[in-house]
Amino acid sequence: MSSKLRLLETAFENAACDSAFLAFFITKYQEAENTDANGVTAILNCELDAYYRLGLCLAPDVSASNYLSELNKISEYIGISSLLLNQVLKRAVSIVRLSGANTHSLLLAARDKDKDK
Q: Which of 21, 50, 89, 95 is 20 to 30 A from 77 via CA?
């Protein structure tokens, strides 16, 4: 692996901790789909450096009116299909929302259980 690719990988891993970046959503997607970077590059039909650069892009808000415009800009910049990126991103956003909802529900259930005592 080249030093440039290692730097991109490190930056990707750091960005994966921040939901402002696509790396966060890509990582959640990988966890849910039990895949890795190679799996996602196969889905997006891109090279590993494009995968890492994609992760460093700011994540567009899927509910914003300019979502498709932002998605197309990212796809064009990285050189990947906006349709494939849209599929991965929408799945990742759903995963994040559902996991957040489940956590919230569990916390509410735990709180309600304590009230019964």
A: 95
Using one digit for the tens of pLDDT, what is the confidence trace for 18-74? 999 999 999 999 999 999 999 999 999 999 999 999 999 999 999 999 999 999 999
What are the residues whose beta carbons fall under 8 Å from the beta carbon of 9, sequence distance 6 or more? 1, 52
Query: How far is it, in rounded angstroms, from Cα 76 to Cα 78?
Result: 6
Residue 20, C-beta contacts closer than 8 angstroms, at least 6 positions apart: 58, 59
The closest alpha carbon to 92, from 22, 25, 43, belongs to: 25
What is the rounded CA–CA span in Å between residue 22 and residue 12?
Answer: 9
pTM (predicted TM-score): 0.82
